[in-house]
Request: fold
Amino acid sequence: MGWFDDRVALVTGASSGIGAALAREFAREGADVVLCARREERLEAVAKDVEAAGRKALVAGCDVRKDGDCERVVAAAIERFGKLDVVVANAGFGVVGRVDELALEDYRRQMEVNVFGVLRTFQAALPELKKSRGRFVVTGSVSGHVPLGNTSAYCMSKFAVRGWAEAAHDELARDGVTVTLVSPGFVETDIRRIDNQGKLREGARDPIPKWLRLSAEGAARAIVVAAADRKREVVLTVHGKAAVFAYRHFPWLVQGVLARAVGKKRSRAFKQDG
Reply:
């Protein structure tokens, strides 16, 4: 018996990384899965993994930046499965650059995906989640707790998501809908190989050392457990938890270390790979 036997889970950003791993993990726990992303060819491969686990998959091309796309996907999910029990707003990317280098459009592009993409997903799914007394999971970031150098746009978006999730959790409690914020540290995904336009750079290297990165599968497992337990928030990776704790008590020390060790290195890596 799985935690989500005969439930239906919808995952945005499901074509790679944490999203794809989540789809597989939900299937292993007994759920049928609605797979949402822009890259439908990659979703087809994930769908085969879901079906190999004995569950049904619905591939739904979706761009969370576009009004109406999420409503269309939810309607397709209800037509196919009749309900929604879990929705994971996972689509996102990171804009990199100094505050005096980024244009207003860079910030707008970042917020459109990472913040308004969450809201579009939420508003489309909420009526069905109220019916099922379901779960809405938001992929935030340790960067929503600890600001890093050269990532002001990304940090701003994740701080916003964190604040929204805290408020939504309390407001929806009486409706039986749980909002869970997941704040990962460094995870083995493509996010650091995506440029400021939201496009994947196939040859780009990840500037974060491998020993600091949690596998996407490990992250997905922790997220599914948090959703099953209806947690308010879960911070992933030992380093992520340590950073959140330390920044809360010693912000001056943590900010200095992280700005040098991560922010500058990440910015240089993108410039070199470009």
